[in-house]
Design a protein that fits this description.
Blueprint lengths: L13 H31 L5 H38 L3 H28 L1 H7 L6 H16 L1 H16 L3 H25 L3 H24 L16 H36 L13 H26 L1 H9 L3 H28 L1 H7 L7 H14 L3 H16 L3 H22 L1 H4 L1 H32 L3
Length: about 475
């Protein structure tokens, strides 16, 4: 089967195509996000784990994001590269990109697993796990078992966008959904039934990830449009380089989040210890647990946002490759409107209904200090949600257009310069509250820069120069 199988990407109405590709992608990413969130919900509602277990989940979460960063660099980069090549009719190069991406992910997952096992205690300390004894102990247990599933997790996450690029967004969704449903069933069984604690939450997650990876392997052997042969799995520098360049934004978006979370967790540990309430041993884990919960809600919203934008990658790549810039411009307009709407709905939820959101994560088992800080954290940390959503859409759309440099620079500015910088700077003046102010300020300033790029993209697409 050749690239003609994907010609409908340049012919069908833009709105219909975006729905067809975005909805399964949104569901896939939401389900992927629910792995960690479901763990945290059940951990928080287990009285013998509580906020200490919640804080441990927050400590380990950045390490899973680091694994995701490497996976999506290969997967999203391959998705964009394959889509552009199919638009140009270069099926042979598309096949080689898939084969090379698989090899890169397998190698990266093996190395990362070894690093995590060798330096587990140092990494836990780096991400704030030493806030108190219980948090540290729970972090060690959870991290060990999560690390054993890293190869499954990375392979499944990398294959997801590649499967979409092959024209099967529904299969990508179903493979992720199958693993997440199994995780959701096993979590309460292992945590409440078997009383396995943090180990139970981690083992349930790893089993779900293994199922997703196995389904991805099956699809790799039965691809529809891009069918890699044995020779395509032999690494080729030019193909690997272009794939990784197009996926660099995805890597930096995720890995800079890890850097920001390291800064945030350590600022929470440092300035929480200086707080009159959270400086007490009994309440020391509360700020870290709460910020972790707020980030998880944000992750749900961003999964929708990234899902809409990432679902457009095959469409944008194909139409750019085919020179259909007016269709790309129409996609960009629809995407920005939808992303802003998602941000507005999410903003309304966190500002008007923070207490019901907190209740999901076991607030009934905690002190009033927990609830009060959580309400403040939701309302401050996420107050620029609309801008955050538009910014993410802009990063990914630039990536899909093949503008790797512009996308990377904007992403680095948001996640590293602003995200890490403000997380380290603002607590010097505002203490613990400075951690909460860091995110909205970062999103606001990034939007100012993104607005200029958005205007430039529209002009280029209008003139057919993009």
């Amino acid at each position: 089967m050749n690239s003609q199988s994907n010609q409908f990407l340049g012919l069908e109405p833009v709105g219909r195509l975006m729905r067809k590709y975005a909805v399964p992608c949104i569901i896939s990413l939401l389900v992927g996000a629910l792995y960690n969130i479901v763990d945290q919900i059940f951990i928080a509602n287990a009285s013998y784990l509580g906020s200490a277990g919640n804080a441990a989940n927050t400590v380990v979460f950045p390490m899973t994001v680091a694994a995701l960063a490497l996976a999506v660099m290969a997967g999203d980069g391959c998705c964009a590269f394959v889509s552009i090549q199919l638009g140009q009719g270069n099926t042979a190069i598309a096949r080689k990109s898939v084969g090379n991406a698989v090899v890169m992910v397998a190698a990266a997952s093996a190395v990362l697993t070894a690093v995590y096992l060798l330096f587990a205690d140092d990494l836990i300390a780096m991400f704030g796990g030493t806030v108190n004894v219980d948090t540290y102990r729970h972090s060690q247990e959870y991290f060990f078992y999560i690390t054993l599933g890293i190869p499954f997790y990375m392979f499944g996450q990398a294959m997801n966008p590649i499967i979409r690029a092959d024209g099967s967004p529904k299969f990508a969704m179903v493979s992720t959904l199958a693993g997440a449903i199994l995780n959701t069933i096993l979590d309460p069984l292992f945590i409440f039934g078997f009383h396995w604690g943090m180990m139970g939450a981690a083992v349930a997650t790893v089993i779900g990830q293994a199922v997703t990876a196995l389904l991805a392997i099956w699809y790799l052997l039965h691809m529809k449009v891009v069918k890699p042969g044995a020779a395509d799995f032999r690494p080729e520098r030019s193909v690997c380089g272009r794939t990784l360049a197009l996926g660099l934004t995805s890597l930096l978006t995720q890995i800079s989040l890890v850097a920001a979370m390291a800064a945030i967790n350590n600022m929470i540990r440092k300035y929480g210890a200086q707080d009159a309430v959270f400086g007490q041993e009994a309440y020391a884990q509360i700020p870290m647990a709460v910020v972790g919960i707020v980030m998880k809600f944000f992750q749900i919203v961003i999964s929708v946002v990234i899902g809409m934008a990432a679902g457009c990658i095959p469409l944008v790549g194909f139409n750019m490759g085919a020179g259909l810039t007016e269709r790309v411009r129409a996609m960009f307009s629809k995407l920005l409107r939808c992303e802003a709407l998602v941000g507005a709905v999410a903003l309304g939820l966190v500002e008007l209904f923070p207490r019901p959101l907190i209740a999901i994560f076991g607030a009934a088992n905690e002190s009033a200090y927990y609830t009060d800080f959580a309400v403040k954290a939701f309302r401050i940390y996420l107050c620029m949600m609309v801008f955050a959503c538009v910014n993410k859409a802009c990063f990914i759309f630039l990536q899909a257009m093949g503008k790797a440099l512009e996308s990377t620079l904007l992403s680095v500015t948001r996640e590293v310069v602003f995200g890490v910088g403000f997380a380290l700077l603002l607590p010097l003046f505002f203490g613990l509250d400075g951690v909460l102010y860091s995110m909205p300020l970062s999103d606001l300033l990034t939007f100012v820069a993104a607005a200029f790029l958005i205007r430039s993209i529209y002009q280029e697409l209008k003139e057919g120069k993009a």
